[in-house]
Amino acid sequence: MIHTAALFSTAFLPGQAGFDTDAITGLAEWRLDSPMLFKLLIGAEAQAVAWPIYGAGEDCPCVLAAPMAQAQASWQALCALMDRPRDAAAIVARSAISTLLAGGQAWLVLDCVQLIAHDIGTPDYAAALDALRAEAQALHLALQRGERAALTPLLAAGAASPATGYWSASASAQLADVEELDAQDVPFLQGLEVVGWEEDALCYKVRAAGEPEVTGLVTPYGRWIVPLSRRYVDLGVYYADDGWLTFATADAPDAHGVLDLNGTVVLPPAPGALYVISPHLLQQIDADGASRLLRLPDGALLIDRVDNMCQRDDGLIDIERQMHDGERNVHGVVDKMGKVVVPPAYSSVQDFGTKKKIAIVSQRIAGRFLFGLVNSQGELQAPCQYEAIDCATTSSPPRPRKNLIFAIDAQGLACMLTLDGKQAFTPLYPPAHHLRGVAVQSDFLYVVKDGMAWSMDFTGRLLERFDTVDNFKAAITAQLSESMGLGKKKSAERRSFTPAHILAKADRAQLRAMAALLLLGDAALAARCMDITLEELAQDDPEEEYEGDTPEAACFFLLWSTAAHTLGHGTTLDWKAVDEVPRIVQHMDLPALRDFSWPEREDGDAMAEGLAAIAAHLAPHQLRLVNLHGGEDTYYLGVVRAQDAAAFSKVALQAALRPVLL
What we know:
This protein has about 650 residues and is of the alpha+beta class.
């Protein structure tokens, strides 16, 4: 969609008797902006009114309207100050404006809804409309005083220009969406070859017989954005969604320039090729390969010697500079306006985090790629002296854990870095495993000391010795292989039991005790939970089957399911449902969780960190979070009192369940 300002004339305003949308006459339009003339004509008597061609604007003021008589007087006063027309087009344009304003309608309406980046009816929209009205009143006052300096863009304007806009009765097409019509039904296309419909420009691309290289752009309602008379070749419309068109002329096909979507030349042709990078940035490449980054629309030089650019997932733009002295190419980052965020001095620059505005960078030093950290001002926080810095992928931001980032230094020793790049402790031990996500956990590391695998906290203090490094690696590898279905042994098939099998094993006293553990000691609620579970089993389809290693396990799980879904004391969460963690109270209706939040959530945090945050919140309430089935892709969550944790684990294990208490 191309945002457009439009002027309309109407005999009545919405709400007045006789108002008819079919009687609205289009006068003028301009893409991307509201021309100065549009604002001047609305003038001092502008009032905000509803405009029902927009659904939300039927009952809400969203456009400016002014008496046509005022607009006519303003135009006459302006003509008296304007320079004499310099060409036939300017003479015709002034005559057309005078004629259209004198069309007999009582009101002039300025529709700039598409140019206000807020929803109709919001305070921000109302403020933007008020600002536009104030600007119109100021221009009207300048005209009354004859202040030529304030009106300079208008006084020397030619035909269609950013100051005057495009004037034509056919602009009423803006009352509806602009869309492709059958070329046979568009009279002015007859005799032309339609190359195609350019959706991003809302134009037909056309050419005339005899000059197949010369192309132009025209709207379905007859506005020539690029007239064939300009004899443009190599007309590039693939950047139209960024607001620009590129072109060359038939006389100089190797020189390229830039047009806006009104067809106004913003950069005249210059030798070489042009590539629009973003709405504000342009790459220019000379015939000899030299390239540079320019600013749009003024063409100002931003960075010289820029060879490759591409958009990043963090909204910034990668830049690359090719080195011709035997050195490797260097990379940097600019923002969407072309401001340098990270200078081109690194072998790579990974994405910045959405909360912690830091990124991992690398440099090749003594034949090795070593990594460091930079902040969003491009300042090097941690020098490039680390063999690895923890992140999710090779382009991801660093992954903070408790506001620390795991790293391996150039000597292969594990450490933690603060967010400003300082070492949290002196590195002494190498990590115990090379696989990503194994060496560092949510609140401790696996490291090696004297050939043994240890856990170590984030201050560098050793916690617990596990086993030899070889045995530790073998155990980790086996666990990973099993989780991916790569184990040599087939996992045992899950057993299943019918309701009759489960009821035969049901011990009401034991069930009531288990329910009480899941329901925080509430005996009455436990009895209700048990009754609901047994009643549903008795009424169930006799051929229904429930999984479990034992009938007791299946019964225990059904009991938990009743407590979770019927009584609000538990829930299931998918292993990827990290966004559900802050909304946990919507899943588990427990008073202790109603004020839970996760403000310390970091980029890359997964469910493990989310569950740890919930567990930490529950701890002061003397409650423990339970995952009923450890090691599965779905978390079956519940809560038990801290004093009941040991009893709960015992009962669950007796039923062949594998609960994890957090």
